[in-house]
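Can't attach files on this board, so I'm pasting raw text. These are the components:
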Amino acid sequence: MRIATWNVNSVRQRLGHLLDFLKEAEPDALCLQELKCMDADFPRREIEEAGWQVETHGQKTFNGVAIISRSKLEDVRRGLPGDESDEQARYLEGVLPLGTGVVRLASIYLPNGNPPNTEKYPYKLNWMRRLTAHAKELLAHEEPLVLAGDYNVIPEPRDAREPAAWVDDALFLPPTRSAFRGLINLGLTEALRATTDTPGLYTFWDYQAGAWQRNNGIRIDHLLLSPQAADRLAGVSIAKHVRGWDKPSDHVPVLVELRPQ
DNA sequence: ATGGCAGCTTTGAGCTGA
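---
Top answer:
Structure tokens for the assembled complex are below.
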């Protein structure tokens, strides 16, 4: 089974790339972030006509997450629990029924948090606390679980081409990295680092200053696996070539392959 | 040292992203 995550930076701008990637990668499910549109404006018809099921949790202008899958997503949850006043569409969760069992899957768009000296940073840290609390509840189910998305967290210096440039950034500040470790320490496995120690693996390259051409990237899109999912981990890949397509997203897809149960 | 791009909306200058 193949599960992918991709921050598309506007699903309407990226529809062509999205359909191409689905055809090329043939995932069982693809988590999307940064739809930048309301549910009514999501290009649902085009994706369904290509043979996919679609669940969305959209928002006007900003944020928005979705899960595209071959089989229909069940037990769908929209929004991260823990703050009824939070109106930002950053979390979508459901259960994928499979021939050999089920996998619970979440599409996550964790807040950026910049600039750190504003209310945006405590919002990010609080969101991470809520995610950790919710993940703890999900882990109690002792089932295959994949928490996939744009975490806006650079876990370690080796996950940035120029770590010194990020030391004062919300993506790399010590409280951010500490909160990410706290999430992992619940018992989750970060899929890519379970398979390789190679530096220079990135999932985001800024549009500015020739970041892509200079390979000045950061690794901020992650898939976290419960023990029951990690036991089945067969491989991880970063679809780096997608960043070279015409009019690309600034993020590329990340994929995990899980063995059958 | 700085800004540089892209996408959104109040459709055009300002916000946001990372």
